[in-house]
Amino acid sequence: MMALLEVTNISHTFGGLQALADFNVTLNDGDLVGLIGPNGAGKTTVFNLISGVYRPDQGRIVFAGQDITLWPSYRRMAAGMSRTFQNIRLFKDMSVLDNVRLGAFAHYTYSFWQIVGRTASFHLQERRLTQEALAMLARFGLAGSAQAPARNLSYGEQRRLEIARALISRPKLLLLDEPAAGMNQAETLELVALLRDLHREFALTIMLIEHHMGVVLDLCQRVQVLDFGSTIFAGNPQEAQQHPQVLEAYLGKEENGEHGHAIAEP
Ligand SMILES: Nc1ncnc2c1ncn2[C@@H]1O[C@H](COP(=O)(O)OP(=O)(O)OP(=O)(O)O)[C@@H](O)[C@H]1O
Ligand SMILES: [Mg+2]
Fold this sequence. Notes:
Elements: E1 5-14, E2 17-27, E3 32-36, H1 43-50, E4 58-63, E5 66-67, H2 73-78, E6 81-83, H3 96-102, H4 112-117, H5 120-139, H6 155-167, E7 173-177, H7 185-201, E8 205-209, H8 213-219, E9 222-227, E10 230-235, H9 237-242, H10 244-255
Parallel strand pairs: 3-8, 3-9, 6-7, 7-8
Antiparallel strand pairs: 1-2, 1-4, 4-5, 9-10
Helix pairs in contact: 3-5, 3-6, 5-6
The structure holds adenosine-5'-triphosphate (ATP) and magnesium ion (MG).
The site of adenosine-5'-triphosphate has 12 residues, from β2 and α1.
């Protein structure tokens, strides 16, 4: 079977800093894989390289059989990739509904003349998109807030809205950067259940960066652990928790007084 995503030996430096070195990952259809590691390990950099925010200094990224290493972000989205951001990126003054509708731009293609002429097919696409966005909001328990500005939502709701927006383009691959960050325990448990359902319903392949080990253990079939830009473990999430190098990576960060995230955290 052809892999959905094949990342081979990608590296990235910022100035003199090697943020990521020789990173490899293969995702098959339906995989749900965790990417973990202490602060600054290079996790978000991996997502930025896969989604086309940055170009790798070296290496290759193949998605759905095409070499996308040099493609711009929008082209990757149109090919079936979608992501959320560690720092929530919503249009806070726009309505919740419009935030979701905007996520569909990779999916719905209006030509210039359709928009200017407001043709029948433009109106039909508009109506269909609004219906789909409302259905998506309902799925995320946000339908009641559809007309409210996004800034009125609680933090946990804003995180859910970001995922709803990422899904409206019907991606094959979903990259989630700390979806449970800032959520309380109850919200986190709800999110885990929701992600499990969405993964099945939408036939998604998911790569998930997450500091809550409970989320990773509950959801992920495999996990990859980064430390200082290098992969120090790849395999079973339960085994990762016991692995000496992984424990040391997290412990080292705590001894240095950084706000490391304990691997055994519930
Ligand atoms: N735009 C940038 N310019 C310079 N350095 C950067 C930039 N983005 C990230 N870095 C550095 O690259 C390294 C990896 O950062 P990255 O954001 O990928 O880590 P992370 O694993 O996502 O960390 P966190 O858990 O804190 O989100 C860090 O040392 C970071 O300071
Ligand atoms: Mg990060």
